Amino acid sequence: MKVSDLVIKCLETEGVRYVFGLPGEENEDLLFSLQNSEIKFIPTRHELGAAFMADVYGRLTGRAGVCLATLGPGATNLMTGIADAHLDKAPLVAITGQASSDRVHLESHQNIDVVNMFKPITKWNTSVHNPQIVTEVIRKAFKLAEIEKPGATHFELPEDIAKMNCDLTPLSAKRLRRAAPDYKAVKRAVELLKKARHPLIIAGNGAIRKMASKHLRQFVGLTHIPVVSTFMGKGAISDKDEHSLFAVGLQARDFVMCAIDRADLIITVGYDIAEYSPEFWNPGKDKKIIHIDFLPAEVYEFYQPDIEIVSDVSGALWELNIAVEKEKIFFDSNWFRKLRQVIIEEFDSYRLKDGEAFSVPGTLHIIREFMRPGDILISDVGSHKIWVGRNYPVYEPNSVLISNGFASMGIALPGGIAAKLALPEKRVVTVMGDGGFLMNSQEIETARRIGVGYTIIVFNDNDYGLISWKQHSHTSKTFGTGLTNPDFKKYAESFGIKAYAPKTLSELRNDLQQAITGQELCLVEIPIRPSVNYALSKKLECDLCEQIDFNIK
Fold it and tell me: Based on the domain organization, do 329 and 413 belong to the same domain?
């Protein structure tokens, strides 16, 4: 069997359904092997789009998304998407072609050391320098990409190796049981819970993977402990649950910080420091912390847990549920109820009224109306991401995807393609600013060509709005952020898709309803003004906690 054929057989054995990528000379054999495969190759318009598609596919399915590129510039174009998967904990396997092994030691056309270049942004990567290692390399790449904490792996296939013959059989994947919690750690955690009066849970990215969300919801139901999610942990418990205090993610002191300040025990569940630094919620370095995660806590002066339960997160919560039910450990929830009501009222204050300028938080209220609980919203990175993380209520795990570890612009539009392929029965909405949209708008052609239908929403302020927001907060002025844009409606229509440009509130509501419920590929351009951003910054300068009666005794 030719090596390139064996590689594809191995991918089929791993359950791969799609490969996202670009053709190149050095991956030619692999492409022709794909031609006769059960796997569908999705040619994209840029390698970055391919990597983002693999990233989002991995996050939604738990199975590694696969992206393919050639050597040199093809490989370098994958880097941002691979890095995003690395820091956002998304399972991804990248495959790159490479020059023949008889010239990789020379300065030759398009040849760079891709393996060393990818080292800092992958869990593991290698070059297939011998046909006899193909099956082991591929099994290892998928195993390491998918085990907790998931991330990116990579292997390159030199073009001369791809043409060789070998006599190997793909290695089958074996189900891996994750580590059970240490009973002494669980016992110590229970003792800390018994001493606490106002504990609080911070649910991170790891709380929405595997069975963690299910068991976290059971734990909260038994104990009545409030939950604050990070932006990437949204949906770990439903925001309809009376124990939800919504999300934390702003570097400013938002309403939710009032509860964190008053908590005498913080339980972090699947929390990633890369997403939201503990410096913001534990500035005094004095919080008692129980760390529940797949890996030990990072060594960091602002995050020094009293107890670490290092195991499968759902397994740890399972044991805690047994213990708290047996010991009848539960807490008075009155202390945070007023805060939850204040937050809900604050969110409601952004509902749009006739004649008002459109805003991101106001539009999010309307989007939420037309999205079912498990439907998927993917946020790009920009000022709108802050509002999605802060104001958009979420009811199911993994139904809102926000890149907040690497936080890369350009992920949402190609991510929508992957989301629709992974979960075709879901409504998919992608929201982005004008800056992020034009970074990967070429993938509209990919989406139309393969026939996936989802909604692309472009919040247009003719600006790199998040940077302007931060500059304005620091200096009351902005520089280097202004943009000019094409007519987005005509631009979208040039790809042969529907496009809307609402001007009134009734048009906005009608257009969003038609776009979201119709599930056709379409674009909605929404002009926004930055005043709502600056007003929030001004509001957060005040001591919000003084306005709330916490009723703590």
Answer: no
DSSP secondary structure string for all residues of 326-383: HHT----THHHHHHHHHHHHHHHTT---TTSPP-HHHHHHHHHHHS-TT-EEEE-SSH
pLDDT tens profile 274-288: 889 999 999 999 999
58 lies in the same domain as 156: yes
pLDDT digits (tens, 9 = 90+) for 328-345: 999 999 999 999 999 999
Whether residue 496 contacts residue 459, with contact meaning beta carbons closer than 8 Å, is answered with no
Q: pLDDT at position 194, please?
A: 95
What is the residue type of 90? A
Beta bridge partners of 244: 227
> Tokens in use for 195?
């001493």
| pTM assigned to the model | 0.94
Rounded to an integer, the average pLDDT of 363-379 is: 97
Q: Are residues 13 and 104 in the same domain?
A: yes
- Residue of 216, 214, 222, 211 lying closest to 201 (CA atoms): 216
Q: Is residue 176 assigned to a domain? A: no
Q: Which domain CATH number covers 403?
A: 3.40.50.970
- Based on the domain organization, do 151 and 24 belong to the same domain? yes
Euclidean distance between the first and the last CA atom of the chain, given in angstroms as a whole number: 74
Question: Which domain does 459 fall in, by range?
Answer: 349-538
Pair type for strands 498-500 and 428-433: unpaired
Residue 200 bridge partners (DSSP): 266
Q: Which residues contact 2 (CB under 8 A, 6 or more apart)?
A: 29, 33, 162, 163, 164, 165
3-state DSSP assignment of residue 102 = coil
> 416 and 519: one domain?
yes
Checking if the pLDDT of 469 tops 50, the result is yes
Could you read off the pLDDT of 81-110 as tens digits, one per residue?
999 999 999 999 999 998 777 666 656 665
